[in-house]
Every structure is written in C-alpha cells, then in structure tokens.
Amino acid sequence: MNFIPTPLAGAMIVEPQVFGDDRGFFMETWHREKFAAAGIDVAFDQDNHSRSAKGVLRGLHYQLPNSQGKLARVALGAVFDVIVDLRRASPTFGRWLGIELSAENKRMLWVPQGFAHGFLVVSELADFLYKCSGLYSAADEKALRWNDPTLAIDWPLEGAPCLSAKDAAAPLLADAVLFP
Fold first, then answer.
1. What is the model's pLDDT at position 174?
2. Helix H segments across the chain?
3. How far is CA 155 from CA 19, 39, 83, 120, in A?
4. Mind telling me the catalytic residues?
5. Rounded CA gap, 172 and 46, in Å?
6. What residues form DSSP beta bridges with 116?
7. Whether the bond into 125 is cis, omega within 30 of 0
C-alpha cells in the first residue's frame, strides 16, 4: 500500500496494491498493521455502504462530540470526495481537499476525526463504502453547508446537485459547531 499525505493535517490518500489478471483483481482495503505503520492506528466500529445516482451530493457531515474517522472508497462508479478540516487548533482549519475516488482508480481516503466529509456522484451511479472509527449517533450528527462561500469548494457540478433537506439547510462554517 502507498500512503500519500495530503495538504490537510492527518488526512491521507491510500493507494492499495492491486493484483489483476484475466479473471479480475484482488486488493487489500484494510490491514491494521500497515495502516498503523503509516500513522493510522484506528479500530473500526461500523461499515457503511451507500448507492447514489449522478448529481447526488451527500454532506458535508460530521459528528460532535462523538466524532468518527472514516476510510472511504468507491466500489462502483466515481465520486468527487471532499473533506473540510473543522479542528480550530489545526494549522489547516477551514481548508478543504477534493479528490476523485472511483472503482477504476481504487484509491481510498483516510478522513481523520475532526473533519466534515461529503461527496458528489460524478458517474451515472456510485457505490460508496466507508469504515467508521465510531458508531453513528443521530444526536451527535452535524452538517456544514456544501456551498459555503467562505470555503469556496470547487464541486464539479453539472447543474444543481440533488440534496437532502437537511444538507440544503446546513449551517455555514461561521455558524457551525466546531472541534477544539
């Protein structure tokens, strides 16, 4: 596995080693010792799988106080995956990173605790899978406005995104509950 640091403190792109032949391919998507050696020493409590159509934008979500780290990947299709550092004490507070995760490139993104996370489906359909370092807690769930002008996220949109009512009404960064 290749672990690539990102400009956002603690977040990493993970490129698995892919073994392919005429039958298909095999890759490891999680190996505790390899991840720990790269500085991602985490125990996962929950796995999630969502399927969404082109133009669906989910996020930007996070939990506070029971935050979660996430290891995200795409098994079908492609998404533009975005994280925002919400840790006030971080040198990269308020900065965002967007990368394409796809079934084709097989990249994964490690999203540390203290980040908001969301994605836009850029293929006709996408299966998005992510491991969480904490359990989902509806009482702790928070959201950040996907189109906050302060963040100026450059989403690769083709028209208006398809949003949940909750995501459409999410607060701006200036009004959000943040991490210390």
1. 97
2. 32-37, 165-168
3. 32, 29, 12, 8
4. 61, 130
5. 28
6. 84
7. no
SS3 category, 93? coil
pTM of the model as a whole: 0.95
pLDDT of residue 14: 98
CA–CA gap between residue 60 and residue 42 (Å, rounded): 22
* Angle at alpha carbon of residue 161, lines to 51 and 143, rounded to 5°: 75
The letter for the amino acid at 131 is K
Q: Taking the C-alpha atoms of 58, 64, 67 and 72 in order, what is their torsion angle to the nearest 10 degrees?
A: 10
CA 84 to chain CA centroid, nearest Å? 9
Q: How far is CA 24 from CA 18, 20, 59, 81, 126, in A?
A: 10, 6, 32, 25, 19
Write the burial class of residue 120 (CB in 10 Å: 0-12 exposed, 13-18 middle, 19+ buried): buried
* Phi, psi torsion values for 145, nearest 5 degrees: -60, 125
Judge contact between 57 and 163, C-beta under 8 A: yes
Cα 138 to chain centroid distance, Å, stands at: 18
- Angstrom distance (rounded) from CA 20 to CA 124: 25
Low-confidence ranges of the chain (pLDDT < 50): none
